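Hi R.,

As promised on Friday, here is the backbone we talked about, encoded as structure tokens. Could you run it through your design pipeline when you get a chance and send me back a sequence?
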């Protein structure tokens, strides 16, 4: 049996999507396997709290991964975020009990305040009455004076209450600030856990739980037994209807629709690339690629956010090179404070070494063509790192020559008579 055109067309993502057909065919597929699962599509905006089956599966993976790889930073961060989230939930419950007790205490205090206010008003009324009698009776005058002293004492007491009230208000503000911080921490924790879940779902698979349909359904092309056709045919139809991959849990079979992909041609094929947004847009998590290299989202959409610290803290050599390219090689050299390792009449040689990668090597030259204002602009050329550690030593002349001398086939000759490079006129 040849490869049907319907399958070939379905391999051009995202293609068409008919969720009803997908779930009908997956129902047939499960029946053929003799297993029972709830069928559920994971759609954009999914939340792990709404997927208990998925959450249970991911927590099991997370615990196992941390046990077997205690130095896996991403897994450890996700586990810590999960544990912190659980602790925060327990603390929130404790706060609720505290709030209930505080409310009861406040109600009692308010009742007492009302009683005190009534008593104070009675005292003030009495004071006013005594004040009316003060001109007639010295004893009443003395009583009035005592009452005034009592009123002053009450005022002092009220002032203390006011301070206490302000302190309580400050405490409330502090709690509000803390709650806001907790909310941010909770969001970060949730983000970390969701990213780990996305990795479990959208990576190459974990414990054979994830099945990419594009290759599994090819079993239908050569199926020559009823048993194989019984499960492979409906799986092929689900793929053609828009399903991308399946994810198995104990009681639920999740499926995800095909993503939108952005690619660029290369000499050997094609690779993921998008210079303005995600190269893979899926319902699970968008992924950003720069000429085939997976990079953080901000490297693509906000290259102005890249800092020297980002570049030098990046542990993946390919990602680091992309960051330097997006940041600007000449800007990086200047901003990182690099000094030339050598210089001659042809230029200045700069190098940035990394423990896990070949060094970044540049030669600074001056443009022979004047700018409109009559000045001459300096610029940097990326050159082979061999000019830093290689046979030609740290010679800017050789580095500049390497950017011009080529063989008939186009490959650069780095050290073959670089001394001959002495242009008399440049245009």
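Update: got your reply. Pasting your designed sequence below so it's all in one thread:
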């Amino acid at each position: 049996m040849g490869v049907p055109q319907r399958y070939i067309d379905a391999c051009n993502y995202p293609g068409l999507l008919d969720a009803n057909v997908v779930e009908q065919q997956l129902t047939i597929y499960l029946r053929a396997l003799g297993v029972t699962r709830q069928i559920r599509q994971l759609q954009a905006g999914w939340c792990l709290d709404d997927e208990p089956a998925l959450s249970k599966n991911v927590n099991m993976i997370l615990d196992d991964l941390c046990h077997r790889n205690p130095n896996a930073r991403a897994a450890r961060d996700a586990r810590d975020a999960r544990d912190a989230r659980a602790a925060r939930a327990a603390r929130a419950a404790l706060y609720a009990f505290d709030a209930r007790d505080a409310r009861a205490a406040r109600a009692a205090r308010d009742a007492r305040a009302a009683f005190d206010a009534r008593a104070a008003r009675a005292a003030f009324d009495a004071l006013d009455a005594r004040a009316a009698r003060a001109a007639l009776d010295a004893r009443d005058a003395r009583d009035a004076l005592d009452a005034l002293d009592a009123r002053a004492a009450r005022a002092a007491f009220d002032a203390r209450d006011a301070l206490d009230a302000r302190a309580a208000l400050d405490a409330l503000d502090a709690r509000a600030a803390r709650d806001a911080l907790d909310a941010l921490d909770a969001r970060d924790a949730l983000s970390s856990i969701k990213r780990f879940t996305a990795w479990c779902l959208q990576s190459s698979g974990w414990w054979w739980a994830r099945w990419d349909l594009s290759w599994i359904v090819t079993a239908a092309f050569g199926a020559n037994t009823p048993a194989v056709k019984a499960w492979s045919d409906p799986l092929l139809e689900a793929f053609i209807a828009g399903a991308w991959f399946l994810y198995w849990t104990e009681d639920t079979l999740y499926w995800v629709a095909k993503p939108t992909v952005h690619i660029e041609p290369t000499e050997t094929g094609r690779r993921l690339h998008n210079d303005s947004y995600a190269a893979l847009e899926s319902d699970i998590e968008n992924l950003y690629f720069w000429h085939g290299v997976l990079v953080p989202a901000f490297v693509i959409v906000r290259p102005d956010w890249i800092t020297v610290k980002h570049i030098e803290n990046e542990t993946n050599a390919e990602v680091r090179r992309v960051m330097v390219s997006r940041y600007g090689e000449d800007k990086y050299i200047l901003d990182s404070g690099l000094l030339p390792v050598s210089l001659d009449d042809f230029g200045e040689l700069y190098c940035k070494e990394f423990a896990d990668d070949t060094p970044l090597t540049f030669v600074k030259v001056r443009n022979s063509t004047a700018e409109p204002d009559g000045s001459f602009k300096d610029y940097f050329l990326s050159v082979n790192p061999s000019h830093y550690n290689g046979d030609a030593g740290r010679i800017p002349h050789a580095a500049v020559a390497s950017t011009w001398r080529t063989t008939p086939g186009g490959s650069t000759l780095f050290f073959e008579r670089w001394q001959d490079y002495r242009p008399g006129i440049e245009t």
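One thing I noticed while checking it: The chain has three domains: 18-258, 261-305, 328-420.

Thanks again,
M.
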